[in-house]
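Subgroup meeting minutes
Present: P.N., E.W., G.H.
Scribe: E.W.

1. P.N. recapped why we're keeping a running log of single-chain structure predictions: easier to compare across weeks, and new members can see raw inputs and outputs side by side.
2. G.H. added today's entry (468 aa).
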Amino acid sequence: MKNINPVIYISMIAALGGFLFGFDTAVISGTVESIRSAEFGFALSSTELGFAVASVLFGSAVGAWYAGLGAIRFGRVKVMLVASVLFSISAVGSALAVGLWDFSLWRFIGGLGVGIAAVIAPAYIAEVSPAHLRGRLGSLQQLAIAIGLLTSFISNYLLANAEHSPNATLWGGLLAWRWMLLVEVFPAVLYGVMALKLPESPRYLVSKNKLTQAKQVLVDYTGELNPDDKLQQIKQSLGNVDDIVSIRHVLSKKTGFVPVVWVGICFAFVAQFTGINIILYYASSLWSAVGFSQSLSFAVPIGTTIIGVLMTIVGMLFIDKLGRRKLLLIGSIGMGISLWITGIIFTNATQGESGLVLSPVLSWAALVSAHLFYIFFCCTWGPALWVVLGEIFPNAIRTTGLGVATCANWIGNVIVTWTFPPMLQYFGLAPTYFFYGICCIGSFFMVKYLIPETNNKELEDMSYGISQ
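Output recorded in log:
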């Protein structure tokens, strides 16, 4: 690791928060049917199940809202350490939960960690990266999320098949589905230990008038050739450094938020209505519903997330070449068409005693079309979302604006996740997929008319939509 470029090294450590983000939000997919059941779980209705799954997202919204303010007051690294502690507490508590409400509480606490990680990692990476590498390094957040998803699905698969059932009793008398939740404590502790090795963001250090330390970080980690000039640019972009801790800096008397924050809110909120998380959170139960065996239902998400990791790398290779907007526009069209194809396939399903029934050919066709959607997301919206959110806000409001936008992202996630089981029950898979396909096409126009190109621009030059 010593031979790795220093800025790449510290960006990789910061992106561990993205790994936990992905792991924590997707691990629930392997436990859905178990926590729903009366014998092995909590005897939940479809609405209660949606609440249990969405509880982490409520926490994520709250964590994202306060993460930006905490990062301004206490620094980026200290807030990462808080996230590590929250992830650890959640892993143990949710694994030992005895009912819906305490399970939801522990998942809410984990959500606080997810929300913090979602804000701090892209902000920190953007602030330590040189402009020509910022797209690729910012994409490490999405790559880490994808690896976290993959790890959670592999872990779920291994634990579900250790004794041939997610409801089998494993070590310490805990059921397999409880171990799925408990194993997160190991990467959570590692995240905290590694975060202790990180230098503080030079933008934060300048805001605290620690100019010598900020200069040292710029020289040692970012390779800045003119650190004194860069410090002056950062200082000017921050404005009054004694007065940037309040949420009021992203507010406007006329419109509620300053324009750039509204752009971030719309962008982050609409990203959830691509439907990406209904595939991730309900992966195992979704494929069971169309006729795949239990073992295959747990195995398919592993293949899905391997594809996700590879496609995220593809997106990383092109994000600094094509720019953020082109990737997003391509992704919107590709995702929309893929979801419509999947919906058309599901219109040919019949209702059996145990759920939907598709012919083997159509089952695999649905699998392919759903994976085309995932491919488009992972090489376009996946990496570009967090890169743009990390870049678009001016220095003076970056973490606060990013926190508000990420909060909107999680509110959208709550809506999508909580409403999916009832939509599935009352409308069926096909109309649900058609709806999210329409949302994807809508996202094309949102990007076309609202999102600026931030490729190869210095953070100190970001002033888009900041006027009151």
